[in-house]
What we know:
Layout: E1 3-7, E2 19-26, H1 29-38, E3 45-49, E4 55-56, E5 61-68, E6 73-78, E7 82-88, H2 93-102, E8 127-128, E9 131-132, E10 137-144, E11 150-154, H3 155-158, E12 175-185, H4 197-203, H5 211-225, E13 233-237, E14 243-245, H6 246-255, E15 261-263, E16 268-271, H7 273-279, E17 286-287, E18 290-292, E19 299-302, H8 308-326, E20 335-336
Parallel strand pairs: 2-5, 3-5, 4-20
Antiparallel strand pairs: 1-2, 6-7, 7-12, 8-9, 10-11, 10-12, 13-19, 14-16, 15-16, 17-18, 18-19
Residues 13, 47-55, 68, 89, 114-117, 119-121, 123-124, 126-128, 176-177, 226, 229, 234-236, 335 line the site of flavin-adenine dinucleotide.
Amino acid sequence: xxxxxxxxxxxxxxxxxxxxxxxxxxxxxxxxxxxxxxxxxxxxxxxxxxxxxxxxxxxxxxxxxxxxxxxxxxxxxxxxxxxxxxxxxxxxxxxxxxxxxxxxxxxxxxxxxxxxxxxxxxxxxxxxxxxxxxxxxxxxxxxxxxxxxxxxxxxxxxxxxxxxxxxxxxxxxxxxxxxxxxxxxxxxxxxxxxxxxxxxxxxxxxxxxxxxxxxxxxxxxxxxxxxxxxxxxxxxxxxxxxxxxxxxxxxxxxxxxxxxxxxxxxxxxxxxxxxxxxxxxxxxxxxxxxxxxxxxxxxxxxxxxxxxxxxxxxxxxxxxxxxxxxxxxxxxxxxxx
Length: 337
Ligand code: FAD
Ligand code: EPU
């Protein structure tokens, strides 16, 4: 059923109150095909919506919002090494991860508590604490809007990168992801070296962690610094961590030897955007109804009544100030609509 003039406030984690001209849900490729008999996507704007946790709505949406509610989690195959598990795009990501861990299927424990739905996870190759979905990804099925066919993509075809995939670039707007299939591990391969995970496990007195222990550690770390969208509107990291040429990194680190940095392929280093933003004076700096979070300067928060335009303008100021202070160009991670 197509609804008209629908508020999107409930459907985005920034809590921005804009209206969509029309809005409809679908729970299968067939249901989508049925909708497309009466809706011509060539003639109007459309937005594919999952959990709305990586978008910033800057104005009323004068088109149709298609909310993906394709459900179902299935173990489709077992090999010597893997449980091959397919999930509908509309499943909630964290609940899906919890389900896999409850079954003893390993591999997604470090990606616990990331908001949003399974269908959006390949869009930006979600990642946290040393793991990205590309590490456990097998394939996905996506509806090709132009032909009405369902196409299958393996990892190479998705062209995954750091917070990147082909669906954000070359094929932007051309496909609706219907399901994602993962190679989950029979024998866990725990990644506990990253950041605070080790410390958190030690603090709990755990020396031989299970996948559930790692997941619980990740959940505790995330809860200690990331704002809960139910309490404070946000979309996680607003910018990507910038990758800069090694010469530029050396120049910056000569003045700032404490700058956090990570390997990023030959001739490059990745810098911590949160550190740059904090040093540029924005951590906890509130202007009007928004600001960078007090505990994590990379997360832009809505204190309640911000408009999308206001948040976008504030993010522009952060970009300009970081560029002026460090010569580094930040790139927004959040999708601007
Ligand atoms: P949406 O916001 O609904 O959509 C995001 C984009 O994908 C839009 O362009 C949309 O059109 C498109 N899209 C959505 N579903 C489909 C589909 N089925 N087919 C085609 N296109 C689609 N991300 C990380 O990577 N790591 C983190 O650690 C992390 N932490 C976060 C913490 C918080 C508190 C928050 C609020 C966000 C965080 N994020 C993180 C960002 C976000 O959770 C992810 O990007 C998530 O995958 C977005 O899912 P979604 O369903 O909400 O996508
Ligand atoms: N830092 C500061 N000040 C801050 C925030 C961070 O100095 O206000 C420093 C930290 O001390 C640390 C470094 O920056 O040395 C990195 O910080 P953190 O470990 O919190 O991670 P991040 O780089 O800010 C990235 C992802 C997160 C992901 C975490 C954990 C991006 C853009 N963000 O954040 O993903 O959860 O690592 O792996 O890559 C998201 O994409 O929405 C997201 C939350």
